[in-house]
Amino acid sequence: MAKKYTYFFSKQKTEVPDVENIKFVLGGKGASLVQMTKLGVPVPPGFVISIDACDYFYKNDRKYPEGLMDTIDENIKELEEITGKKFGSKVNPLLVSVRSGAAVSMPGMMDTVLNLGLNEDSIEGLIKQSGNERFAWDSYRRFIQMYGNVVMGMEHSHFENILDEVKGKKGVQNDVDLDVDDLKEVVKKYKALYKKEIGEEFPDDPKKQLKNGIDAVFKSWNNPRAIAYRRINKIAPEVIGTAVNVQSMVFGNLGDNSGTGVAFTRNPSTGEKKYYGEYLMKAQGEDVVAGIRTPNHLEDMAEQLPDVYKELTAVFDLLEKHYKDMMDIEFTIENGELFILQSRQGKRTGMAAVKIAVDLVKEKMLTQKEAILRVEPQSLDQLLHPMIDPSAEKKEIAKGLPASPGAGCGQIVFTAEDAMEWAKDKKQVILVRLETSPEDIEGMNVAQGILTGRGGMTSHAAVVARGMGRCCVAGCSGVSINEDVKIVKLENGDILKEGDWITIDGSNGVVYEGKVPTVEPSISGDFAKLMSWADKARKLEVRTNADTPKDAKVAREFGAEGIGLTRTEHMFFKEDRIFAVRQMILSDTKEQRVKALAKIEKMQQSDFEGIFKEMEGLPVTIRLLDPPLHEFLPHEDDELRELAGEMGVEFEELRAKRDSLAEFNPMLGFRGCRLGMVYPEITEMQVRAIINAAIAVAKKGLKVEPEIEVPFVSHVKELAFLKDVITNTAEECLSKSKTKVEYKVAAMLELPRSCVITEQLAEYVQLFSFGTNDLTQTTFGYSRDDAGKFIGKYIENGILTEDPFQTLDTEGVGELMKMALKKAKSVNKKIKLGICGEHGGEPKSIEFCHKIGMDFVSCSPYRVPIARLAAAQAAVKPKK
Amino acid sequence: MAKKYTYFFSKQKTEVPDVENIKFVLGGKGASLVQMTKLGVPVPPGFVISIDACDYFYKNDRKYPEGLMDTIDENIKELEEITGKKFGSKVNPLLVSVRSGAAVSMPGMMDTVLNLGLNEDSIEGLIKQSGNERFAWDSYRRFIQMYGNVVMGMEHSHFENILDEVKGKKGVQNDVDLDVDDLKEVVKKYKALYKKEIGEEFPDDPKKQLKNGIDAVFKSWNNPRAIAYRRINKIAPEVIGTAVNVQSMVFGNLGDNSGTGVAFTRNPSTGEKKYYGEYLMKAQGEDVVAGIRTPNHLEDMAEQLPDVYKELTAVFDLLEKHYKDMMDIEFTIENGELFILQSRQGKRTGMAAVKIAVDLVKEKMLTQKEAILRVEPQSLDQLLHPMIDPSAEKKEIAKGLPASPGAGCGQIVFTAEDAMEWAKDKKQVILVRLETSPEDIEGMNVAQGILTGRGGMTSHAAVVARGMGRCCVAGCSGVSINEDVKIVKLENGDILKEGDWITIDGSNGVVYEGKVPTVEPSISGDFAKLMSWADKARKLEVRTNADTPKDAKVAREFGAEGIGLTRTEHMFFKEDRIFAVRQMILSDTKEQRVKALAKIEKMQQSDFEGIFKEMEGLPVTIRLLDPPLHEFLPHEDDELRELAGEMGVEFEELRAKRDSLAEFNPMLGFRGCRLGMVYPEITEMQVRAIINAAIAVAKKGLKVEPEIEVPFVSHVKELAFLKDVITNTAEECLSKSKTKVEYKVAAMLELPRSCVITEQLAEYVQLFSFGTNDLTQTTFGYSRDDAGKFIGKYIENGILTEDPFQTLDTEGVGELMKMALKKAKSVNKKIKLGICGEHGGEPKSIEFCHKIGMDFVSCSPYRVPIARLAAAQAAVKPKK
Fold first, then answer.
1. Is A714 in Cβ contact with B668 (below 8 Å)?
2. How would residue B598 be classed by pLDDT, with cut points 50, 70 and 90?
3. For residue B616, what are the contacts with CB-CB under 8 A and spacing of at least 6?
4. What are A736-742's contacts with CB under 8 Å, separation 24+?
5. Does B667 sit within 8 Å of A714, measured CB to CB?
6. Which of A73, A738, B347, B744 could lock onto B766 through a cystine, CB 3.0 to 4.6 A?
7. A471: helix, coil or strand?
8. Where in the sequence numbering do the catalytic residues of A fall?
9. How far is CA A618 from the centre of its chain?
10. Which residues of A touch B774 (CB under 8 A)?
11. Residue A783 C-alpha from the chain's centroid
12. How much is the pLDDT for A432?
């Protein structure tokens, strides 16, 4: 038996494919048309040519499956019977639209032909049908142009030239000023152009038009922009083609009783359960979109066309009930008769997504688990940061990368020092830098936002800003930033100076002139409810990366169940201690080092006390010093000279020391646990600070759970040695204080070798944390700071489908993680494993962590809710 | 039954432990004493206390096994019976030596006590025995001093002070000027000192002396220098202690008919089959070593003491026959009676090792396979480079690391440009640099040797020099090199200037003043023979890393079976093309790049033609451009300014371009196949040059086997893309030329990710080569250029037993290699895998490659014979 390639839909007869998900046969649009028809929704009748036909077309040298053309003829015949119209009829012509529709929405990427079926005969019929001669001739003119361009590949401009010529001759500016005769002339000229370019007459036969139209839609599946769209939107190669929807035309511009509109079944901005939409009478769909006339609010229809309104809202309710979601619906009213042209799940803001999901549970349409899957975790981000007031007037002056969400408004400063200085005077500042370095952290912290000229989504500025929840626009390469003379030159040549006000939106990367008002987010009760469902569902523990009591507090409010990563190095940069840190680094002897470390110890201890207090009763993983020491030294000779003065040593000597610390590849250099191996006194100081802080807090009756983490381990003997240092130091502190504090020892897995020998390491620790940033760097051999030179190109060319620094590379890095996890658990079933790289807050990566049986993820405070929801989705999602 | 802890040896009775290798019970020295006695060699009788006793001692709180002391007493009794001497006898006293002896030789690291048994009584006996009162008192004096120092831990200097005091009083300078009375006074004062420091009388009881002596030897196993020695010499922890050898003393200084000597059964320098040794009459062992008197050649003994000589040489022959090797023997003649005190396999030069191994096969003592195992592969190095004339007078002025073997003599120059300039004038130069960079390669190539102030054994200078077979002393940190003013300041303050002559020895890292004559190596027929046996035995193919026809020629002469790695980037630095290379790099558009590449193409082609000719009939793997592009640009602004002038562009523009190419971590940056991914035109140029070169050579009737290798692959799509570029380009060249050339496509495995996804990559290539340098860097997270900051400390502290850049880390990197190998072969059984990092020429790493089933190793030309032998040893060695 021949395979079925067409599916008819009409009030009288609807064919539904017998498969689980009809979208993969009929495409998204076709599925909705068939489904709606089935539900009794008034949809103009038509038929769908299946995606399989398109697949066949590409696999068989652009031929149709045998018999398909006959079947199409039969469908047309049936359509003619049902509508009482006829292809090419002078009296009551059947006109159809031919539209693409893949399984995945690819808006505007593929081709559409409208008004197909018009010819010298049916134009007369259309005049009769519509009673509007100009409308009919304009439709014919448009059809020829669309057909010539879309189906035959003629240049759009060639048609426009003719139109301009006729308008010029008549001395008018606009299309609407052409009358019937003018349009007839245009049609004539169009046909002549067609003959000249194509070498044959414009086809009068509607069946020929139809065949060519279907061909064109099939071919448009592989036009360059469609291919690009699929690549950019990471549409899987399993999505193999487009269906073709052939549907009888309806017109919203036939007369006073006709119209067209779009509507949402609930408010897509707020989620409020209230119909929301607009319509225009005497108009076609494109008129609404084009915004030439101001459309009416949907509510007005209740008075203007009460019957239609009633029918329409009944359709809304019907569709919501069927799809169990807020729907986005396009409709047309033709001579008072309602037709639904399209329906799909409506796009919505994060806030609306949450409210709708929670409401649908209240309305018993969804279970809690289904509701969890309805909110894109990423969209919660909108709920967690200040936003640009959508109603505010604003002028865009530059655009960079949306590196850290939220909006910020302040006066431009060019150095971290200035930022701190101005902030002390209660000024709001935006820190503008070519790029940031660890020295800038304090300045970043006091700024309302950060704007950088260089660097990508994972640049220092971006990573640190996200960690702080500070908004950031990075890599704003269109502007030129001169830190020396303190100016920003915009692309249009305008200059911004220190002190000028700007507003940046880290959610979309836009920079605005002056002060744009921002609005604070409100976390509604629905949000909390959804999160509570998510917490019930998820298996993964969600921790946070937090370096300060403030971060810890925010994260805890956002639901963090502990700290998965405290980076102690950020503390080293604080103004009151960086001098001692530098003294320590530049020491020649252990004695000098110990002396400088003693100055830092008390301050570190008080940092930790603050964090422990905020995280009372929850575990806190503190990573020992990680970055190469030279990161703490001034890069510029001027600063270094100043430091030499303060330290009372010769500048030359200090410079030689700094230069000797410089590295060719600092990422692979003298850092991580290697520091503690060579200078155990640093580790000892940090462990004392941690344990003594824990003791101090415990003495106040609070519960503390410190976990001391060794970074950048590659050899078991490193861990063995440092575990000794840690336990010896800790036990000494504890026995001195006569207080009991339980502490754990942990290690980072961030080097391929540590994943190969995890079973050896597992004997020394109770917890492992994958540092997937570094692990990605070493597994791929990509330096995060340098990969920008080719990674963009790689993604563009489809070599990489995603940036592995944003979404975990499950095939390579993930494989090493699975190996490590298996090895670790084989030695110690109780050992906990988690992830604390940037990936810890990325939904796909979180899903992977869930799948391979990890115990926790840790992410920046502002991503905690996202991670909670993503972890829940991973747990709830049906397994494939 | 109690465990046996002592083993007696004498002509009458010898106890041999019933184990496979008696060394692990008796220690090396004990085993040889027992074995020699068993063979009938005249060894002074005695007994061995086993290593197990030492092990027991350490495991049981420094106690002896039960009954051991009794057994020792029995052994002493037996010794007294056999020798007719008696402990403490006034007439015929038994004196013994107590010496350490572990399973592995640790010369001078542990303790020895001689003349044990002397006291107020036996001194009289010794006088009678020897007829030499002064000798007896001097022996007594020495014994007290040795016992006090070694056994009781008294300061050596305290005894020396007394000796000086007595000499001072008498007004003499030397010990020999003290007479019997003086010595008696010294003994008295020594005893008083002993009493004062130890709190008891010097022990008269020989048994107490013995017990304490044995204790001291046991304890010396764990003295700091012994521990350090074991760590430094990587002695496995399975070697658990020292045996104690208690042996009756014999004296070579009793009279005219006594003497002592050392001998080798063959010449240890040349391997010549001729007894070789020295002896001194009326002397003790230490006199020979101290070099106070000039010893006689062994041949003289044939006339002087014909009977002893006959007996001695008979022992030589006997021991050689037994041990099937050249032996190193210590002997003493006591009143005309020969005693053998020690025998062991003799240390020898590489040349001697080869000759002896081959001769022993000729003499039917060894099989070919046994002979293969007899030569340390590393020692062949000595046969392949010019050497400092051993007889030349020379003055050492500095010492660095022995970075690349061989000796070189020349005038100092400080820049690569000067080196080339001077070389053009036929001057011999030594290139002296703080450190070298790829720009210096041409200069290094024309120099006689390279001396650097910084960097380790795997620094750029070291690696490149070894690759070139140029000698190099690296990291000579004692001197201070000032390249600007062109001087070297030595540690003693002396200054060397440009043009001064120096000689460097890259085999030991020594720098000599002035011109020291060097001798060229000669590869004897024996060497060739041994190599032919090795070639028969080995399974691994041995290829070479060669970038020039000259290297290829040398390597082929050394037995390379093809090229495993040709680095094309070295060619880019040649004077005639670096300008075009820089133009290419600094191009803004593809057109400019293609234009610059066209200039390089012809030159590259002729490079390849030269290599193909030299390697006729053998495979040649050519790696596509690998290093980051900025390596080709001038680092200094002055040079860049010059380049800007030559290129006719603005300096500022060029500098901006160069700065934009700079990277934070170039090792993980825009390099390897990433270059070809972004600029496929570079790959196309290189492929055209390779294939057209192959065509040109093939047209001359020579067989060429090019293998085009893609470096630094981390993702399968990179390989898929570049394989397309390679095959398309190659096919185009081949079809144009109408010539048939078989070529292969290969890929480097040098990133962890490539080892995780090797099964994906294997579909695209016929050959894989592990780049273990980069793989070690990324697996450990060690930058080779920076790891010096901690790797030394790691090895010192035993965190690492070996530098993983020198000896493959089998546990981590090796595990990834095994994984990759398995994955590759699972997809394609015929696929070839090899290794082409520095490890390809290192014997232990080669053994690992053999074990895991690799197909080839590739190493620098001068290591090819080493690799051939090491591969053979790996194949021949008995499996554990």
1. no
2. very high
3. B697, B702, B703, B704
4. A737/A692, A737/A695, A739/A695, A739/A698, A739/A699, A740/A698, A741/A691, A741/A694, A741/A695, A741/A698, A741/A704, A741/A706, A742/A705
5. no
6. B744
7. strand
8. 460, 836
9. 31
10. 781
11. 23
12. 96
Residue showing tokens 């893949």: A102
Q: Each residue of B485-505: pLDDT tens digit? A: 999 999 888 999 999 999 999
Q: CB under 8 Å to A614, separation ≥6 — which residues?
A: A549, A552, A553, A556
How many angstroms separate the Cα of A219 from the Cα of each of A96, A148, A237? Answer: 19, 15, 17
CB count within 10 Å of CB A122 equals: 27
Q: In the predicted model, what is the mean pLDDT of residues B29-44?
A: 96
Count how many pairs of residues, chain A against chain B, have C-beta atoms within 8 Å. 178
| CA-closest candidate to residue A452, choices A409, A483, A419 | A483
Q: Which of B482, B757, B786 to mutate to test the interface with A (most CBs of A within 10 A)?
A: B786
ipTM associated with this complex: 0.81
Regarding beta strands A242-248 and A112-116, do their DSSP bridges make them parallel or antiparallel, or are they unpaired?
Answer: unpaired
Interface probe with B: pick from A789, A796, A797, A813, most Cβ of B within 10 Å:
A789
Instruction: Count other Cβ atoms within 10 Å, centred on residue A566.
Output: 27
Strands A495-497 and A487-489: antiparallel
In chain B, residues with a C-beta closer than 8 Å to the C-beta of A721 are 797, 799
Q: What SS3 state is found at B251?
A: coil
Q: Is the pLDDT of residue A129 over 70?
A: yes
Cα–Cα distance between B51 and B22 in angstroms, integer?
A: 11
Find, in chain B, the residue whose alpha carbon is nearest to that of A454: B660
Q: How far is B792 from chain A (nearest CA, A)?
A: 10
Give the residue among B551, B565, B468, B453 at the shortest CA–CA distance from B509. Answer: B453
B contacts of A712 (beta carbons < 8 Å):
781
Least confident segment among A78-87, A182-191, A304-313, B630-639: B630-639
- Identify from A663, A665, A791 which residue to disrupt to test chain B contact, counting B C-beta atoms within 10 A and taking the largest count: A665
Is B756 close to A812, i.e. CB distance below 8 A?
yes
Contact A580, A600 (CB under 8 A): yes
* B413: enclosing H helix or E strand: strand B407-413
Summarised one tens digit per residue, pLDDT across range B316-337 is 999 999 999 999 999 999 989 9
Residue B586: HSE in the Cβ half-sphere, 13 Å Cα cutoff: 27
Q: 3-state DSSP: chain B helix, strand, coil percent, rounded to 5?
A: 50, 15, 35
> What does the pLDDT look like over B66-84, one tens digit per residue?
999 999 999 999 999 999 9
- Whether the predicted model's global pTM rises above the 0.90 cut: no
Asked whether A869 and A535 are in contact (CB, 8 A), the reply is no
Q: What is the pLDDT of residue B467?
A: 67
| Average pLDDT of the segment spanning A688-702 | 97
The percent of residues in chain A predicted with pLDDT above 90, rounded, is 68
Residue B36, token pair as written in the block: 């020699």
Residue A406 backbone zone (phi > 0: left; psi -120 to 50: alpha; other: beta): left
Nearest to A816 among B678, B756, B785 (CB): B756
Asked if the Cβ–Cβ distance from B664 to A666 is below 8 Å, we say yes
Residues of B in contact with A670 (CB under 8 A): 786, 789-790
Residue with tokens 């607009």, as numbered in its chain: A278
Query: What is the distance between the terminal CA atoms of chain B, rounded to a whole angstrom?
Result: 31
**Mean pLDDT across chain A, nearest whole number?**
91
CA gyration radius, chain B: 33
What are the chain A neighbours of B789 within 8 Å (beta carbons)?
663, 669-670, 674, 678
Looking at residue A238, its pLDDT comes to 72
Q: What is the mean pLDDT of residues B138-154?
A: 92
pLDDT in tens, B418-446: 999 999 888 999 999 988 887 788 889 89
Q: Whose structure tokens read 């940037």?
A: A838
